[in-house]
Amino acid sequence: MKIIIEKEKCIGCGSCAALCPKFFEMAEDGKSHLKGSKFDPKTEKEELEIKEPSCAKEAAEVCPVQIIKIHES
Ligand code: SF4
Questions:
Q1: Ligand 1 cavity residues, CB under 6 Å
Q2: CB 3.0 to 4.6 Å from 60: which of 24, 28, 43, 68, for a disulfide?
Q3: Tens of pLDDT along 8-33?
Q4: Contact status, residue 27 vs residue 59, Cβ threshold 8 Å
């Protein structure tokens, strides 16, 4: 299971980091960062392997631009 964020489309509202600090934090560039992940410049995404989505589900629901995805595989 993994969390994916389309980082380039993030508008920096901070909701994900506020709701789910376990996985999300706001980076120096003002955009969301998945803790422990690396930005892939090819896909313009960040991915993080997780076991349980826990609060990431809520973060995905509240993201105003819907760029947080949770993949089952
Ligand atoms: S909720 Fe969405 S738009 Fe807001 S900071 Fe997080 S990823 Fe970016």
A1: 5, 10-16, 32, 63-65, 67-68
A2: 68
A3: 999 999 999 999 999 999 999 999 99
A4: no
Tell me the CA–centroid distance for residue 73 and ligand 1, in Å: 23
Return the structure tokens found at 23.
Answer: 């996985």
CATH number at residue 10: 3.30.70.20
Among 6, 8, 15, 20, say which to mutate for ligand 1: greatest number of ligand atoms within 8 Å of CB.
15
Q: In which domain, by residue range, is 65 found?
A: 2-71
Residue nearest to atom 2 of ligand 1 (CA): 63
Looking at the structure of the chain, the number of domains it has is 1
- This prediction has a pTM of 0.95
- Cα–Cα distance for residue pair 49/28, rounded to 1 Å: 23
Q: Does residue 73 carry a pLDDT above 90?
A: no
